[in-house]
Amino acid sequence: METAIVAGGCFWCTEAVFRDVIGVSEVESGYIGGTVPDPTYKQVCAGTTGHAEAIRVTYDPAAISYAEILDVFMGTHDPTQLNRQGNDVGTQYRSAIFPLDDAQRAEAEAAIARSNAEHGGRVVTTIEGPAPWYPAEDYHQEYWEGEGQRNPYCLAVIPPKLMKLRKSFQNRVKA
Q1: Quick one: how far is CA 128 from the chain centroid?
Q2: CA–CA distance from 172 to each of 18, 20, 55, 56, 114 (Å)?
Q3: Which of 10, 13, 45, 154 is catalytic?
Q4: Active-site residue 13, yes or no?
Q5: N or C: which end of the chain has fewer CB within 10 A?
Q6: H helices of the chain, where?
């Protein structure tokens, strides 16, 4: 198994997408890229810690490559919005890839180049790190499967992302 860390806005939304991807065995919401050790959700939401809401994906490289993980990531959020995704505004909602080694860094650069070709060179996704990973509080994990189904924000934002996943990456979606 291998690991990928990406930040694409609200981690509830990104986590919901990757839980449906073939080859992904685990998705954990958390915080990365800031200056405060072990931040809380409240601190990160205040926008003062420098952290991004992110997900750590555990996947089987025999079933899906890191490049494919990044293509799904870039294709299921808007990588052209600086420090925001829709109504979520702030550096904690930035689009970023956190490679864990030089090979992942090279793949991240290639994924951004592919996405830039599709978006007319407007991609603002950054490559950051290395940086410590901090798991989010328990109530954020698997949020869409529970509380998210009753959260009006999630009901407005997550289903369109899941539809985009199913439309654009049909061969990557769990049955």
Answers
A1: 13
A2: 10, 8, 18, 18, 18
A3: 10
A4: no
A5: C
A6: 11-18, 41-45, 66-75, 102-118, 152-168
